[in-house]
Specification:
heterodimer, A: alpha+beta, Glutaredoxin, 5-stranded mixed beta sheet, B: mainly alpha, 9 helices, globular
């Protein structure tokens, strides 16, 4: 009699335990996410993401920024990316093309690319090379060439094995850059000199301060967008900033 | 083994019969699948979802378009295999919740199977996103286990967990099917 009663009781306790664990996990996740959002907001109060040309300290620091589009534009979409990240690559082939067509090419907004090399060690070399290309005023060409290369040779076919291989050597980056009309030898020299390492480190630090841990992550005003989201998510956010 | 397969067959057949005799549950399943998929897609942008629902200076139409716009993420935020897995999971989730509603209405039994389907949804949430890129709930878990040094391992764990979520939801549907079999036997369906 007792054993018959205790069996459903044990079952019920087990079910309650599972439900409690699930609830705790969900609450934990929500708290984790909201903390990330809070830390982003704190940083943005110190340094507004939507910036005007007046807020920039001087021309030299402005030229060091990796900008797609015109320099002096009021609304900026900030992207934290890694040249080896499959989702960043997918974003460059899908949503970014629409954003650039509708907003960047018409001079309404620009895109500031911040390097967050997290996939592998050679991601950092590619990030540094992006700043080297920017020294030649060719960041957009470099950005497009590297992502096109990754898409056409690997990620379009679902080949993710390249993530853990040392792809971005100085020679490879120089080759990709040369193919896009950038002086490849200057890229190699720049990488050997390591002149832009500090800029990459500054990007990584800014991501840490903003609580950004993954790529691609975007900032539009005070709003953070995680992942390679569709144009339908970005459009209303950008439009509301342009009003 | 044969007995287990027979049980599975009987259970899923009962679920099929339920949908045949009560076609309104097909609509419920589709609706719940749509909602489940939305939950999965919005998980990594909860702050943004809240902004879109409350603070954003959007019109009602813009708000609805914005919230629904996340479904386009199936094509931009996942590769084709991941997207197919996500859609399969969402459909099974919809079937599962529709069965739950049926069992609740007919017998009032719900607690056990709702726990199973919640576990399925939770594992799917954990698995979605890109663990290697850091845009996944799995990332902090992997960091705590010291596994992020291996990109291949992170990706593999994500894939295994996503399959596990499908297995869990299939198991939940199987459990509900058993309850439905008994109900159908009692009522001569």
């Amino acid at each position: 009699m007792t054993s018959n009663k205790s069996k459903p009781l044990k079952k019920r306790n087990y079910i309650i335990a599972v439900v409690v664990i699930i609830i705790v996990c969900v609450i934990g996740t929500v708290i984790y996410m909201s903390q990330q959002k809070d830390s982003t907001t704190v940083v943005e109060n110190k340094q507004p993401i939507t910036s005007t040309s007046n807020s920039l300290p001087d021309n030299s620091s402005r030229n060091k920024k990796l900008i797609i589009g015109s320099q002096d534009i009021k609304v900026t979409l900030v992207e934290y990316g890694d040249f080896k990240c499959p989702l960043c690559t997918k974003f460059s082939q899908s949503t970014e093309k629409q954003i650039r067509k509708e907003y960047v090419d018409s001079g309404k907004i620009n895109i500031e690319y911040k390097t967050l090399p997290i996939i592998a060690d050679d991601s950092k070399v590619a990030a540094e090379a992006a700043y080297c290309a920017n020294d030649q005023q060719k960041f957009t060409e470099f950005h497009d060439a590297v992502y096109d290369y990754m898409w056409n040779n690997y990620y379009r076919n679902g080949d993710y094995s390249i993530e853990s291989k040392n792809l971005f050597t100085q020679q490879k980056l120089s080759e990709i850059a040369s193919g896009a009309g950038i002086d490849g030898s200057r890229i190699t020299q720049c990488l050997q000199a390591g002149t832009n390492k500090s800029l990459v480190e500054a990007d990584i630090q800014s991501a840490k301060t903003a609580g950004i841990t993954g790529t691609p992550t975007f900032l539009i005003g005070s709003q953070k967008v995680s992942g390679s989201q569709p144009f339908s998510i970005f459009k209303p956010l950008i439009d509301s900033k342009l009003k | 083994m044969k007995l287990i397969l027979l049980k599975i067959k009987i259970s899923y057949k009962a679920v099929g019969r339920m949908f045949l005799h009560h076609p309104q549950y097909i609509l419920y399943a589709l609706l719940f699948a749509f909602v489940g998929l939305g939950i999965l897609l919005w998980t990594f942008n909860i702050g943004l979802l809240w902004y879109g629902l409350s603070e954003a200076p959007f019109t009602i139409l813009e708000r609805v378009t914005f919230i629904g716009g996340i479904y386009g993420g199936i094509f931009t935020n996942f590769d084709s295999i991941e997207a197919i897995g996500l859609i399969i999971f969402a459909m099974l989730f919809g079937i599962n919740i529709a069965c739950l509603v049926y069992v609740l209405k007919s017998q009032g039994k719900i607690i056990k199977n709702s726990a199973k389907s919640s576990a399925g949804l939770l594992t799917a949430i954990i698995a979605s996103g890109c663990a290697a890129c850091g845009t996944s709930i799995l990332t902090p878990i992997l960091i705590s286990l010291g596994a992020t040094s291996s990109i291949a391992l992170s990706r593999s764990i994500g894939v295994i967990i996503s399959y596990l979520s499908i297995v869990l939801i299939l198991y939940a549907v199987y459990g509900l099917g058993k309850v439905i079999v008994n109900h159908q036997a009692l009522h001569g369906v």
